[in-house]
Automatic annotation (TrEMBL):
Keywords, ordered alphabetically: ATP-binding, Cell membrane, Ion transport, Membrane, Nucleotide-binding, Translocase, Transport, Zinc, Zinc transport
Keyword Ion transport assigned: yes
GO molecular function (one): ATP binding
Source taxon at top rank: Bacteria
UniProt protein name: ATP-binding cassette domain-containing protein
Length: 269
């Protein structure tokens, strides 16, 4: 594994007991220091399973995962899986499972745009505030890799845009790599260095520009894909020069998982 690589999956497959076919098959992927990588795919395509397998929370049925020794990971699970009704203040929530000082708690809340909320009950937070508190907790152990599973679920459009801006700021400040699962194709693509399009297997992978032009992506996302393609044809106005990416020279490289039966021509329209 190269020194810039934080985590790498080789032929990763996950099958749930009793299911007739694997949820994800033969996924090869890696995340390098400081990269923002997004996983997109239809409902049920295995995105959360992929993330949880990378984190070691789900057993692989085939393949293996390499992690850099001592890799610090911050994880924000999908919101729907978190019990919000528990009677608990934000301050106490931030001290679970590892106790933090008041100063640390206040600093991280300030960082994620929810200063002074420590005494609030979790249940009394808005969706956007809760999401920022979850992010704050994930940042407390100074992760080198931050993993966010559908972090903007339930937020309105300005809330979504603001959240991704915050994520980019966190990356710029801390140098953490970020792996996100998202449905916000347009917004998330602008914030990503690399996109992985999943439908049980990796259908296509590459820069947002490459993926938005890939036939497999367009077949999966239809009209919505047209929007991202238009974005990259006419408004590719962001740059990633502030991040040293080892694979910059391979900006158009992308790989296909085995078993893909879609059109593999890589024409860019
Ligand atoms: N523990 C489990 N046991 C059995 N099947 C499971 C389990 N976890 C997930 N699945 C199934 O695996 C498939 C993929 O689920 P997963 O949550 O990874 O998809 P997803 O792409 O994240 O979906 P969504 O976009 O709806 O969140 C689904 O059909 C789901 O029902």
């Amino acid at each position: 594994m190269s020194s810039a690589t934080l985590i790498r999956a080789h032929g990763m497959s996950v099958a749930h007991p009793g299911a007739d076919r694997p949820v994800i098959s033969h996924v090869d992927m890696r995340i390098k220091r400081g990269e923002i990588v997004t996983v997109v795919g239809p409902n049920g395509s295995g995105k959360s399973t992929l993330v949880r397998a990378l984190l070691g929370q789900v057993m692989l049925s085939a393949g293996r995962i390499e992690r850099r020794a001592g890799l610090r990971i911050g994880y924000v699970p999908q919101r729907v899986h978190i019990e919000r009704a528990m009677p608990m203040t934000v301050r106490r929530f931030l001290s679970l499972p590892v106790r933090v000082s008041d100063a640390q708690a206040e600093a991280v809340m300030e960082r994620t745009g929810v200063p002074g909320l420590g005494s609030r009950q979790i249940v009394a937070l808005s969706g956007g505030q809760f999401q920022r508190v979850l992010l704050a907790r994930a940042l407390l152990n100074e992760p080198e890799l931050l993993v966010l599973d559908e972090p903007t679920q339930g937020l309105d459009q300005p809330g979504i845009v603001a959240f991704y801006k915050l994520i980019e700021d966190v990356r710029a400040e801390t140098g953490a790599a970020i792996l996100m699962v998202s449905h916000d194709l347009l917004v998330v693509m602008r914030a990503s260095d690399r996109v992985l399009c999943l439908n049980g297997h990796v259908c296509c992978e590459g820069t947002p520009e490459d993926v938005s032009a890939a036939p497999a992506y367009r077949a999966l996302f239809g009209a919505e894909a047209q929007g991202t393609l238009a974005l990259y044809r006419h408004h590719h106005d962001h740059d990633h020069d502030h991040v040293a990416l080892a694979d910059k020279g391979h900006a158009h490289a992308h790989v296909h998982g085995p078993g893909c039966d879609h059109d593999h021509s890589h024409a860019r329209g």
